[in-house]
């Protein structure tokens, strides 16, 4: 399944800044870093479950939130770029 | 969704490291994090620095790393410590090697699979210049396989069939390319360079799948296990070279995606330039991700997964559960 993950972490405190980095690092293990707080990529159900549990443990459930947009089929995704044309999920580097 | 993990191919020069429990690829221009959980296997073509920390991490995650030299030759793979250990399978593997009759039985299947691939390729890309006699002859070879009682003569049959098949290449390929005979180490013309490169991709794809099973990659049947390579991968690759590798080549050349400009040529050798290599790798990757409806499983499986299923069939044979019959393409 194809997933776009977006997070918003309250960084007004030192604690929050730490959470932000931890969420980012965790996401990097599973998805491609597209923009500052945006990740995307192909992932299996099992792996996504792992990631969700891990993020749930890091964030402050009263202040932060993470949104996951799921696409069952990557073919239904049309990706359009304005500006530099690149695919962050490219596997040929 | 079948296999979420992907192969990653690195052509740029840079540094590969472990960072944040994931993989970071750093070039002069950019940092790029590669999600470690998305890596099925890693192909390194560029000039890449890597340290033991990263190697340990990759091995720990069970990622096979294939390394290619400047000319695009496969030079080796980081084959992590086996985790799917099964003494029973290794013992049976050795037993089937030591017993002459058992060994030849398996070896024959590999050759049959290969010849079957030749026939289907010629049928698929049928051209009026491919006469009936060729199919007749290949059929003869297929029948002769059963009569061979030792490995060298079996290899001989395979070689003859292969020569016949390669002779037909100029009829399949619509580009005007020189190709007289198969020459390796080093390849002397475009066609040979392409075949060598694509075959190494097939070989590494098989090797990676072997790592995912309980099989020991050094005990083989058609090739002698004393070969320096993981010879079981060579055996199994025989089946897939014509149908995955050669078909990729035909498509690339007939669509003119690859032309002479993609090669560097010298007096007596020829190899793909980086741009060409990227095109071939991309096409091969697409090929592996193509899915077909599996006859027995009644569901869609990718070409890549078919390799693994082939190895499972081999294991079943070794354990005496089901007689091994090599994969025969039917399209």
Strand-and-helix sequence of chain A, N→C?
EHEEHE
**Count of strand segments of chain A:** 4
Order of helices and strands of chain B: EEEEEEHEEHHHHHHHEEHEEH
Count the DSSP helices of chain A: 2
List the quaternary state of the chains. Answer: heterodimer
Largest interface, by Cβ-Cβ below 8 angstroms: which chains and how many residues each?
Answer: A-B, 17 and 25 residues
Largest sheet of chain A: 4 strands, antiparallel
Number of strands of chain B: 12
Spans of chain A of at least 5 consecutive residues whose pLDDT stays below 50 are none
| Overall body shape of chain A | globular
Sum up the overall morphology of chain B in one term: globular
Strand content of chain B: 15-25%
> Which spans of chain B have pLDDT < 50 for at least 5 consecutive residues?
none
Helix content of chain B: 40-55%
> In percent, how helical is the residue content of chain A?
25-40%
Order of strands, main sheet of chain A, comes to 2-3-1-4
Strand order of the largest sheet of chain B: 1-5-7-8
Give average pLDDT of chain A, whole number.
Answer: 86
Plain-language structure description:
The complex is a heterodimer of chains A (93) and B (331). The two termini of chain A are 22 Å apart. In chain A, helix 1 packs antiparallel against helix 2. Chain A has a 4-stranded antiparallel sheet, with helices on one face. Chain A is an alpha+beta fold and 93 residues long. Chain A has 2 helices and 4 strands, in the order E-H-E-E-H-E. Chain B is built from 10 helices and 12 strands. Chain B has a 4-stranded mixed sheet, with helices on both faces. In chain B, strands 4-3-2-6 form a 4-stranded mixed sheet. Chain B starts with 5 loop residues before the first strand and ends in a 13-residue tail after the last helix. Chains A and B meet through loops of A and strand 1, strand 4 and helix 9 of B.
